Amino acid sequence: MEEVFSPFGRGTRLSGRSGAKRIVKRSEGSSGDGVSGTFAERRDGARRSAERRGANRGNADRRLSDRRAGACTALAMASLMAMAPSVRADIYTRINSKGVVEATNLPANLKDFKLAYRSKGTLIHSSGFLLRPSTNNEFNAHIEDAAALFGVSRGLIRAIIQAESGFDRLAVSTAGARGLMQLMPATARRFGAIDSFNARQNIFAGTLYLRMLLNLYRGDISLSAAAYNAGEEAVARYNGIPPYKETQGYVRTVNGIIDAATAPVTPSPLPLPAPQAPAVPRIHYQWTDDNGVVHMAQSPPSAGKYSTIRSVN
């Protein structure tokens, strides 16, 4: 007669379930030790199986916990990046389905947009620059020489320097622009500046670039300033000043500096004269004495003829 032993109870058939083991009682004469030993073996096997299942669940829980922690970390980093202010103001454009050009500094999909304008970045002044006294006249000789050589007005050169660096010879930007006229490395090489921190080289290269832009736009200062800031390609693309907030503000700044420098000086008004007392008419008396001498006095003679004369002080 065959009986099945299981940790779930005697006589319960669990074949096909993991952890259940069919143990056959060999004979009626088998000792109780054999049966008890079989039960002990079965319990040990079940315990090891449970431990393995527990260990597997523990590993799975740890992996799930690690994945959750990683996801939380990535989400936190994305949130911080989204909240962080943008240092650059690069402009991307695309033509939508209606044929309209769209411009943004935060494209949703870089595959649909192309970089149209690379910002010069945030200006970083040299150490102690803001604590030094005004140096706006320090580079006058270089400005004069560049203006005379390339035929560009001194006022325009000074306006560009003021708008770009505030006359900080060692200023840099987060995008790599350098010096007084904030030349990008490629622009500096293009117009012959070997050392962009050298004031004379920087001013001469920047002024030569302005001369080229003025020739291109037939002397239009606003378009030349827009191209100096955003590039000739952007001006050509929009057939005028690009609709970039930075560039439009830059053009207003340059024109404002030029206008302020060339505005006629209004002379101060002359001081008003002090009020005077009203004039008081006076009467003078005139007569001729016996000797033929003419007399004039504020009172008439005691005798004889006289005439009167009215006067005003």
Written overview of the protein:
This protein has three domains: about 1-85, no CATH class; about 125-260, Lysozyme (Orthogonal Bundle), CATH 1.10.530.10; about 280-310, no CATH class. It is about 40% helix and about 10% strand. It has eight helices and eight strands; from the N terminus they run αββββααβαααααβββ. The chain has a three-stranded antiparallel beta sheet, with no helix packed on it. Strands 7-6-8 form a three-stranded antiparallel beta sheet, with no helix packed on it. A hairpin with a 5-residue loop joins strand 6 and strand 7. The chain starts with about 30 loop residues before the first helix and ends with a strand. The model is unreliable at about 1-35 and about 65-90 (pLDDT under 50).
Secondary-structure blueprint:
Elements: H1 32-83, E1 91-95, E2 101-104, E3 114-117, E4 123-124, H2 140-150, H3 154-164, E5 172-173, H4 185-190, H5 199-216, H6 221-230, H7 232-238, H8 245-262, E6 281-288, E7 294-297, E8 307-312
Antiparallel strand pairs: 1-2, 1-3, 4-5, 6-7, 6-8
Helix pairs in contact: 2-5, 3-8, 5-6, 6-7, 6-8
